[in-house]
Amino acid sequence: MPNSRFGAPDMWLIDRNSDGAGGKRIALPPPLRAALVRWYVGEGGHSDEEAGIMLVQQARIGAKWIACDCLATGARPPILTPAFLSEAETYYLRRLTGARRPEHQSDCPFFRDQVTNRLSEVRSGDGSADPAPGFFEVLRPAPEKLAQRPDGDASDDRTRQASVPRLARLLWRLLDISGVNRIPPFQVGGGGPSIRAEFEALIRSAANIEIAPGVELARAFWTHPRTLQSRKVYATLRALSRSWPRGHAPQGFLTLFSPHFQGHEIIVPDGKPVLVANRVQSPSLRENRLKGPYLVIVVVGEYPEAHGYAPLRAYAQPIYSGQHFIPVASELERMALRQIFGARQEFSRQGVDLFIERPIFDQLTPLGACRPDILIEARSRVTGEIRSLTVDLIRDRDGPVAETRHARLRQFAPVVAISSAEVEEQAVKTRLVAALDL
């Protein structure tokens, strides 16, 4: 049996819901098998990732599963199923396991779950294939007839909490691609975080997203309110609209740092408030009041009442701070992150590097999808030992819900459950020290 670094087992496409022992089997060509293995175990390049994603896409379209030939001849083969996580817009191979399912051989590359990037291996937009099925098109062309039913995405303020706004999805994707939610170890004498560096990371990541066929987000993306006040945004959109793809509405985007918003107004530190045509959307609600600061994404498009272009909609995402554009879902999460950041500096003085990630999208596990609150990877500079933890901030979850969640979280790393009382008592660092034991 070839090992995962240099070889690949024989593999076939089989009919979905079959056991792979009989029926028609389509053999995968050796180069494709090898690329699939390299992608699965995390040792491949961009071309391996593209090949793996293409195979998984085609298997899903053709209602196929993938069988592996790592067991004895004639035995029922272990099976992998193609999976797609729509929230993260990412493809995976999932091992089909169960009491009646054969397991892969222990030296088979598919014996373990698919490798995800370690926290210390910071991803960049260039290093990850993007299998998104469409474009991040927030605006639609105006209907030709008044009687046409409005598009479901063009919901007004009355339905804004019914689903996740597309503006939020676009902002989250920008944050994830840019890597601002992944914090490297503390470095003495380093330049340190800054709002400028965070915005520069977003600008770089904008080149990896399309908002219309052949139109990169970076071509219509700004990070300062002055571009609105000077009307540069509108001039650029008018110029781009001449060659904008037919059937798509010209649109541009701004991301703005804001300490506060109210109604239609976005307060910015150095200028007049930015006004949008509709109320600003945000996860900060009466039931979950989240203070600023916020990272606000604004979409600019054609607005008949303005006889041209204007800011139409906005989504305000609460973030950790102006120096760290880490999205937070509660004040509890912000408080916990503050204590973890403090512990990061203390661990560094003791020769231990802490990598921190606040995952933005759900991630697949053999037990189902979930999103860890915080992932931590600790590495001793003295011994080279590495420890990983999943931090779960306990909220109002009943027993069965918590048990199911923790079972899924343990697929990433051992779980440290921290209560709101422990966060309020500044006990997060103590819990981390005990759990890591480095």
Provide structural commentary.
- The protein is α+β, with helices and mostly antiparallel strands.
- It folds into three domains: 11-95, no CATH class; 162-318, no CATH class; 331-436.
- Helices cover 25% and strands 23% of the residues.
- The strands form six sheets. A five-stranded antiparallel β-sheet has the order 2-1-3-4-5. Strands 6-16-19-20-21 form a five-stranded mixed β-sheet.
- The chain starts with 10 loop residues before the first strand and ends with a helix.
Short description:
With 438 residues, the protein is an alpha+beta fold.
List keywords for this structure.
23% strand, globular, 21 strands, 3 domains, 10 helices, 438 residues, alpha+beta, disordered N terminus, 25% helix
The largest sheet is:
5 strands, antiparallel
**Residue-averaged pLDDT, rounded?**
82
Number of helices, counting only DSSP H or I runs of 4 residues or more: 10
Strand order of the largest sheet: 2-1-3-4-5
Helix content percent band: 25-40%
**Uncertain residue ranges:** 1-6, 117-133, 143-162
Number of structural units classed as domains: 3
What structural category do the secondary elements indicate? alpha+beta
Strand content: 15-25%
**DSSP, total strands:** 21
Q: Rg, please?
A: 24 Å
Cα distance, first to last residue? 37 Å
Global outline:
globular
